[in-house]
Amino acid sequence: MKKKLFSLFFCSVLIFLGxxxxxxxxxxxETDDAQIIYMISLDNGAVxxxxxxxxxxxxxxITKIVTAILTIEKCSDFDQVxxxxxxxxRLLDGTNSSTAGILVxxxxxxxxxxxxxxxxxxxxxxNVLADFIGGGDIDxxxxxxxxxxxxxxxxxxxxxxxxxxxxxxxYTTARDLALIYSYCLKNSMFCEICGTFTSEIPPTxxxxxTRYLRNMNSLLxxxxxxxxxxxxxxxxxxxxxxxxxxxxxxxxxxxxxxLSVVMNAKFYDCDDDGVEENMAFMVSKQLYEWAYxxxxxxxxxxxxxxxxxxxxxxxxxxxxxxxxxEASVSALVPLGVSAxxxxxxxxxxxxxxxxxxxxxxxxxxxxxxVKYAGETIAEVNLVAAFDVQRSSLKYIGDVxxxxxxxxxxxxxxxxxxxxxxxxxxxxxxVMPAKRRNKRNxxxxxxxxELENRKRK
Length: 456
Fold this sequence. Notes:
Layout: E1 15-17, E2 19-21, E3 34-41, E4 47-51, H1 64-74, E5 81-83, H2 86-90, E6 107-109, H3 110-119, H4 123-133, H5 138-152, H6 174-184, H7 188-194, E7 198-201, E8 211-214, E9 232-240, E10 244-253, E11 256-265, E12 267-268, E13 277-278, H8 279-294, E14 295-301, E15 308-313, E16 320-325, E17 329-334, E18 343-346, E19 354-356, E20 364-372, E21 375-384, H9 392-404, H10 407-455
Parallel strand pairs: 15-19
Antiparallel strand pairs: 1-2, 3-4, 3-11, 5-6, 7-8, 9-10, 10-11, 12-13, 14-17, 15-16, 16-21, 18-20, 20-21
Helix pairs in contact: 1-3, 1-4, 3-4, 4-5
């Protein structure tokens, strides 16, 4: 079949005309081949593509990633043999769902059941493992599944079974799945199983021949040119009437690691060659190929870049200090983007725009967002670019001015005015006046005495 040429606006060639004219690290494909598309960098968490990532959807067999990681973490012996209970097999009667043909009473190891479940997407294996880890009760295991995802921070995920067949209250979101899968990928055994293309189950107590398993994730299949992706490392598929075609996967190349979630993708003859294509594979492959062709980790901020300035009071030589990034910052950006191609948006509520001297070089005075094409790609502390000394004379004057303006000083002044000032008036105005009046009265008495003596 011919390879369909996708119309993804984020796959356009980056054009540089003086300044960069390109889309940000966040992209939205122009395609309706999948209802939900979500891609992140596993290296720094950057969102590469987001289409309806918080929309609730049926997870189908992607549910099995939770069944697998819980089994791996809770099982101490992967070579322990489990006998398949009857009810685990009978629960799937009439569902026409994917199985490994496990028979009631068949004995398989935990490891073999994990490969059956993850490589061949076997629902019967999922039930047997759920029963085993749940202590003989699948419902108990499902409760453990829900508790586990809640601990991871998944707010829109709820399971009702261990295999993923459609159920009314069995749902998730692409963002929650990415959170779960990111956790799972830290486990080496999980990655080994999910990255296995073919596996074998040797004869058991119920089978005389070997069963051959092939991974349902066609990104790993070099025999299907349109689906095969050289970068793909792991994955889990899912398909139900309600979920459509689904795929969660990871890819790695040249030190860059990505995770992709495609849900409710179409299955149709997209290129009119008479063969129907699974668009979950097609979209995932295109995402990875674009990312590895166009994105790189680049330095987007360094301490030599002037970002802004802060006014400095009481300074000796300068009345300002330049603000620069505290340290070099790297981010995942399109090819060609560097520290010269980004903008800074200072956070007003986290930045001091006026400070008192002295200021030391490297002193944190604020914070800013590093932006490219309108999107925040990093955050950085802003620090003083140089020392600013304090003026002693300005400082003393400021202390005096601040003292005069204090409540204590004003209260003291009021006391002075209301208490001391009246005393001052009495002491230096009223009392002298009384003494003068007394002296004048004495003089008048003396004058009268002299006049009386003269008359005699």
